[in-house]
Design a protein that fits this description.
The protein is mainly beta. It has one domain: Jelly Rolls (Sandwich), CATH 2.60.120. The protein has a 4-stranded antiparallel beta sheet, with no helix packed on it. The protein is globular.
């Protein structure tokens, strides 16, 4: 499968950003899958927005396990990042995913306080 160089050759006007996934953390410190690529799909995850819908600051974690579901310091991209009360963070990930066993997962330090939304581009490699 093509690697990240596939995306380097594309211009901004050729990129079709789309919402890849959205999830609200339900249980404090329990990771939820935000996105997992389907078989035959390569994905560039550009950005994750983390929206704190409460009146108190909350912490978030974002994990990327290329070939499984391990959500720990080993696979953390952001760990205990503070999201101010009633605010949204835009976190650039620039993560390339092409393994259907891989996962992008998220968690929040407080139940139902954070909504995570991922944006990027999916490319169906079977259609090429």
């Amino acid at each position: 499968m093509p690697g990240p160089e596939l995306f380097i050759q594309r211009t901004a006007s050729q990129t079709q950003w789309q919402q890849l996934g959205q999830v609200q953390n339900v249980t404090a410190d329990a990771a939820s899958v935000l996105y997992a690529p389907n078989e035959g799909v390569s994905t560039f995850v550009k950005r994750v927005y983390v929206c704190n819908t409460t009146g108190a600051a909350a912490t978030c974690r974002i994990f990327h396990d290329e070939d499984g579901a391990t959500y720990s310091g080993l696979t953390a991209l952001y760990y205990d990042k503070t999201v101010p009360a009633n605010d949204t963070l835009a976190l650039d990930l620039d993560v390339y995913m092409n393994n259907s066993s891989g996962n992008l997962a998220v968690s929040g330090g407080t139940s139902t306080s954070l909504t995570f939304t991922a944006y990027g581009e999916e490319i169906n490699m079977r259609a090429r």
